[in-house]
Amino acid sequence: MKPVLIGAAVLLAAIAFYVGMGDRAIMNILILIMIYGYWGVAWNLAAGYTGLMSLGHALFAGTGAYTVAYMYSAHGMSPWISAWIGVALAAVMALVIGALCFRFRVKGHYFGLLTLACAEVAYLSASASRPLGRSDGLSLDFAHWGWGYLQFREKWPYAVIAAILLIAVLVIGRLLLTMRVGYYWRALRDNEEAAEALGIPAFRYKLLAIVISAMLTALGGAFYAQYISFVDPRSVLSVDLSIQILVFCIIGGMRTLWGPILGAALLLPLGEAIRTVLGTSLPGAPSVVYALLLIVVALALPQGLASLRIFRTEKRTTDTADPALPVAPGLGGSPL
Prior knowledge:
By secondary structure, the chain is mostly helical. Helix content is 68%, strand content 1%. Strands 1-2 form a two-stranded antiparallel ribbon.
């Protein structure tokens, strides 16, 4: 847990520094880095560590965001309650999607395409739904200032909450990966047939991975809606969001907990700088730069930025065979 504690101290120091500067623009970028880094870590638990390459995680982020927005605008419900409703809904969706996919052995690219299709169905449904504001979306009016409704005039409380969420998902991820379930996930990712032959129940552990990832993603979506005070299908349900999370993870490093955060920390400020310099003259410039960086990283650093020596916080053997790997039940003591 030492790297997580060091990262937490750095985050809190950065928040305190920018609060002292009073620069709202930089604070906004810092908050977005933490939100997208959080989403990346949540996605990476399913994709990087279990091999479930989801292309539709915007479905779960949008579920959390829309639940908070709708329950507030229609019923005045606090996000402290509605966020967990969104998490539960995302868990049910992931349970249904995962059960169908894994029962019928849908895997690899086909699993990614199926999750993408589910996210697109949700996108079109929200765009046509009157209670959800159709394509205009929903706004969260600022009528309840304070911690009760997570509505603040300053940005630093949002930064503190984002930091807490990011630290929490890192701690959860680290704990899961050092438990039996984490070793089973990696075994299934590397060779599912061999893992099943050794007694690992693939259906159960893959389903657990996608459900946990979906719940964490929905919680991040709930906070994102509360932060920007507005949700619409394009911002929280579009394929752009899913691809953006994926790109951050690939560039940062998919098989590490810190990789998605590194990717977000590099690409989000870079994209903002490009938009500031070019304005509206080249609206697609950030996407072009992201694509070029993706090509460069794929060729020069296949394992992402986290593979660089200065970013390594774990032993190189962490993601490979481990002598302390738990024994699968019923194997007579044979390690995986």
